[in-house]
Amino acid sequence: MDVATIAAGAAVLLTPYVKKAAEEFAGEAGRAVWGVAQRLHARLRRAFGGDDPAAEVLDRYDDEPEATQDELVGLLKERLAADPALAAEVAESLAEAKRAGSTVHVVQKVIEAERVVGAEVGRIRGDRSLRVEQDVQKSKDVLGVRIDEL
After folding, report:
1. 122 Ramachandran zone, left/alpha/beta (phi>0; psi -120 to 50)
2. How many Cβ atoms sit within 10 Å of the Cβ of residue 93?
3. Residue 142 CB: number of other CB atoms within 10 A?
4. Residue 147: in which H helix or E strand, if any?
């Protein structure tokens, strides 16, 4: 796995964690993944601890994860490329999260559309969770979720 993919995956895994969405993220399906995110966050804190600019990026990310996600990904790409051992640890965290279970989180902010579909899932097996958030101002046809088996 290349460092860009690892960095982006880490940011996706960490965003719900730093948003403190524990109740939603850590339901039955997400508890194990929540633990992986928590450990990854602590590992990055340790890795960036002696580097004030890097620690500041993580601090800003903790405060506003969605607004600073690109900045974190850029920092991670740089650091993971320079530190193969850290890249391997982060990649293992992503693999562990994948093995533990999946969380599907769909967010849609729509001003105007003919048809809006949040999720239409054929089958989700095992310990999984699905969360759909829709902020639709104007639409003729809105589907939040349609599930055939979960």
Report:
1. alpha
2. 22
3. 15
4. strand 146-147
pLDDT 10s digits, 40-89: 999 999 999 888 899 999 999 988 888 899 999 999 999 999 999 999 99
Q: Reduced to 3 states, what is the DSSP secondary structure of residue 53?
A: helix
Burial of 108 (0-12, 13-18, 19+ CB in 10 A): middle
Angle made by CA atoms 43, 37, 105, in degrees to the nearest 5: 150
- C-alpha 110/C-alpha 107 separation (Å) is 10
What distance in Å separates the CA atoms of residue 141 and residue 95, rounded to the nearest whole number? 37
Asked if 136 contacts 113 with a C-beta cutoff of 8 angstroms, the reply is: yes
Task: Identify whether the C-beta of residue 147 lies closer than 8 Å to the C-beta of residue 128.
Answer: no
